[in-house]
Structures are given as C-alpha cells and as structure tokens.
Amino acid sequence: xxxxxxxxxxxxxxxxxxxxxxxxxxxxxxxxxxxxxxxxxxxxxxxxxxxxxxxxxxxxxxxxxxxxxxxxxxxxxxxxxxxxxxxxxxxxxxxxxxxxxxxxxxxxxxxxxxxxxxxxxxxxxxxxxxxxxxxxxxxxxxxxxxxxxxxxxxxxxxxxxxxxxxxxxxxxxxxxxxxxxxxxxxxxxxxxxxxxxxxxxxxxxxxxxxxx
Length: 212
Hints:
This protein is mostly helical. Helices cover 68% and strands 2% of the residues. The protein has helices at 3-8, 13-28, 40-57, 61-92, 97-122, 127-130, 159-171, 183-211, and strands at 140-141, 179-180.
C-alpha cells in the first residue's frame, strides 16, 4: 500500500471528536483553573479545524499533521496549566469544593484524550505511515506486532488502541501490555502520568475532606 492510498484510508474522525471533547471539557471547568478564558482552547480547536479540513481535502497530509501538532501543543499547555492551577486552588481553598471536584474530573478526562491523540499522531510517523505493509514502529510495540517478525501485515493500531494506552497511563501510571520504545513517547507518558497523578490527588484530598 503506497503512502497516498494509506493516507486516504485512515479514519480521522475519532481523533477529531476526541480533540473537540477536550476543548468542551476545558470550557466547562472554572475559569480559575484555566490559562486565560476557559473557552479559549475550544476556540483554537474550532479555528484550526478549517485549515485541517482543507489540508485533508487537498491531500496535504503533512500540512495536516503539522497543524495537528500545533493544536495538540496548545491543548497540552492548557491541560497542564489547569492541573497546576488545580493544586494552587486546593492549597488556597478559594474554589467551591464541587467546582474543584468536577474540574479535577474534567481535567483527568481531557488529559487522557489529549495524550491518546499524541500517541496516535506520533507513533511510527503517523497513522498514514502505519498503514503501509511492512512498516515497523519505533515508538510503541503492541502485542499484535510481537507475533511473527513484528512487521505490519494487515493489522494496524487504531485510535482506540492508543486511548487504551493513555487510559492505563492515567490509572496505573504506567503502560501495561504495550511497550514504550522511543524517548519522545516515554516523555509524553511521563507528562501524562504526572498530570493524572495531580488530578487524582486533588480528588482524593477532596474526598477525605468530605469524609472528615
């Protein structure tokens, strides 16, 4: 399968929906937990969706990938900043408890989805590259790839596979059945686990406060 055919065959709507969901989640949290207006990340995503769609229609898949990284970088900064503000507000006690709890939950889910998209975009040069027969990834090694010689021969990881990896990183704070190979993937997973840990600590602290 050549590169152009592979690019056209990649369903991108799961990642698009996930990215929009992240923007909506951040828009719903308290403005005290966001870097700037809470609606700003969603606005950035909506604005970027226009050139992203045009790049896909015109077959400019490298442009689309670069624009995706711009959007992902912006969202990642927003999620990380929200986690930092979450800890600050917990220490100061200046946010209503219910807002703090719902904010932590929203940030946890937004963090999971953000890094699921990161893994989906970076692994093996992107989803288009991964669909080429004989392709070998240097970022993630899924169990299905360990069968035979490790080359892609009819099976490629879908977005759900990367969401599963991200879910494990946010709950177990480590991968489970999937091996993390590249340094960039390891750095991303460390950042994700750190943000997830922060939100879990806030949720636990709030629960202890209520029970106390």
